Amino acid sequence: MGVNVKFHKGAWWIFVNHRGRRRAKKVGDRDTALAVARKIRQRLAEGDLKLLESDPDGPTLETYATRWLEDGQAARKGSSHRFYSFNLTLHILPALGAKGVSALKRADCRELMVAPRA
User: Could you give the CA distance from residue 63 to residue 97 in angstroms, rounded to a whole number?
Assistant: First the structure.
């Protein structure tokens, strides 16, 4: 378990490493960063592991992707929108659409990319 405070790229950051999971959070000034790091260390020592767990009630990839397509349609060219919609509908959503966004892992994306080659 490690909680580190560092000044990185002009800002104070807290880096949390616990059981192979890493998180980084940008905070205000040095004193605030040290205080937050102290609280995180205390909570991890008490066994409060909710700091690093993902939200199981988050949206599914299908819900998120549909909303992303609709919200960004006006900001992109029609051909780009059709390309994104086509690929999401044909390839990504059938394989990963039911998974929660916070539950997606790099391995899921790798499997999706390798599947057409097999």
Answer: 8
Is residue 70 exposed (0-12), middle (13-18) or buried (19+ Cβ within 10 Å)?
exposed
The reply to whether 8 and 35 lie within a common domain is yes
pLDDT (mean) for 91-96? 92
Closest CA relative to residue 112, chosen from 19, 27, 9, 97 = 97
Q: Are residues 47 and 68 in the same domain?
A: no
69 and 111 co-located in one domain? yes
65 shares its domain with 108: yes
Q: What percent of the chain has pLDDT over 90?
A: 47
